Amino acid sequence: MKGLPLLIPVLFMTFIAVGLAEPKTIAVGLVFSVAIILGIYRGYGIDWRDDGLNIDEKYIFWAFWTAMAIIGLQLLVLRDVPLLHPTIRTQLNPRLTALTYFLGVPSSVYLFIRGKRYALIYPLTVALYAYRTPVLVGIIALGAAYYESLRAEGRIKALHIALIVGGVLVLGLGMTLMRGESISSLWTRIQSSTSVLDIIVWRAGWNGLYHGYLQWSGIKSYLAGGYSPRGLVAKFLYVRTGVTITPTLLGGMYLDFGIFAVIEGFLLGLYYGMIEKATHPVTLSLYYSTLAYGLVGVETGILDLPVYLLFGLGAYVVIVGWRRMRREASGVGT
């Protein structure tokens, strides 16, 4: 079903417009968004065969319950619940937390697609970490899968859309209140993230500053420690050590490559345009998972190892399927 990935550039432009971005930022953001849209439509025109990944369903089942077990283990170690006492969430093990996301999101979507309704407990359980992003990603991924299944059956109604949107808003706002924050803080967060992008666009230079190191740090920081991507953004802004700052979807790419970030935008769109045609349940789970991360990444950026791995797996399936179709079309191996 074509259309959902187009929400990413639309939501991005809406986000920076509502955040009162500077005219130069609006112009750069518009070029970046157009590059994503062009990539999406280019991807629509590329045929590939979806054979999925050779993974037995029992391993996906165990991946899901492993993610649930990791959440329980971390709470036992803390002897507390971060959602009730948000200040202790910094004591969570970042590697185990990342593994929760990597295993939990696609496995819950896969099981949901296969009719296992218990998969819906993932966003509720991961909410105990007291981080909004994984909760929103889980709801959006599951909601997108539910929406498109109804759309394919011709049963989509306004009520279904309202339930999906309502679920996102209720859990997102509920977590905001439980963390002791006000609703107005969300507006402040939009403005502050947009202001960060303004500074990046004005100060990073036309060819960027980190030249790929910022996005690479999304891998390095998980494996070997050191600055995280959002930590490098804070360093760029001369903010004290230990603080992390979200740079929006464009910010990290622009801080790395400047105006050449539009190439990454095009490739991102190309990926979505191709994988949107997925039919295999495993590939569909990767599609909905990365779609959710793209939508949430409008504010947070796509800068974390678990997210890179999901995009990498999705790209692998698409590229292998494209190469197989080309070989078959040329008569090689037949």
From TrEMBL:
InterPro entries: O_anti_polymase (IPR002760)
Record has Membrane as a keyword: yes
This protein's UniProt keywords: Membrane, Transmembrane, Transmembrane helix
Residue ranges of the TM segments: 31-47, 59-76, 96-113, 120-146, 158-178, 254-272, 292-319
Keyword Ribosomal protein: no
Pfam families: O_anti_polymase
Protein name: Oligosaccharide repeat unit polymerase
Organism: Thermococcus siculi
Lineage summary: Archaea, Methanobacteriati, Methanobacteriota, Thermococci, Thermococcales
